[in-house]
Design goal:
By secondary structure, this protein is an all-alpha fold. The chain contains three helices and no strands.
Length: about 100
Amino acid sequence: MSLRAKVEEFLDTASRSRLMVWACVLGLIGLALMSWSLFDQGWIPVMMAMSVGQGIGTLSFALFLVIVLIDLRKAEFRPSIPPREQPTKPMKPLKSKDD
């Protein structure tokens, strides 16, 4: 099975809600590591925030983009501009009750 087929199968069968939970959890872990460097200004917290925290946050964002791709694959696109109608013959004016 080729890589492309594996990716398409994953995008067709993946649970969006489970991926969203993982993206949120990873985002919070990355945020906690980055916040730790604000309160403890030693070199270890700063290095953790700049490497591990950023990596986890980037992974969280990548999972969110996968969710967006899954939604776009399942979406039914409708044009925002309605199709042009064929010109019809002008209608005769209606007679009013006063005429």
